[in-house]
Amino acid sequence: MLGAVMFGHREMQKVIDGIIRLAEKAAKEPRDVKVDTYEDEAKALADIAEAALKEAYQIAEKAARHQRIETIRAPRPSRSWAMKKASFRKTSSQNCSRNWKAG
Question: Global pTM?
Fold first, then answer.
């Protein structure tokens, strides 16, 4: 039993040595990477939502609190987007009813 373990260990060492040689061959010098911290965006977001979220977290009732938080977090679609959406729904429903009558 010990012989099998020793054999496995020796054979794995060959594989590990091969991995190390490959890593040394393919290695590159580390380079500097600029990391964006988004400080300005974080500040703008805090200015917009911080007071409203603090107020929302004061609500004791869980359902009402979650509903208020969702209204704060929800994106505000532009008026043109809402109009396009309504137009699409109207057109889609007209096409469906036309297809239903034709079929």
Answer: 0.36
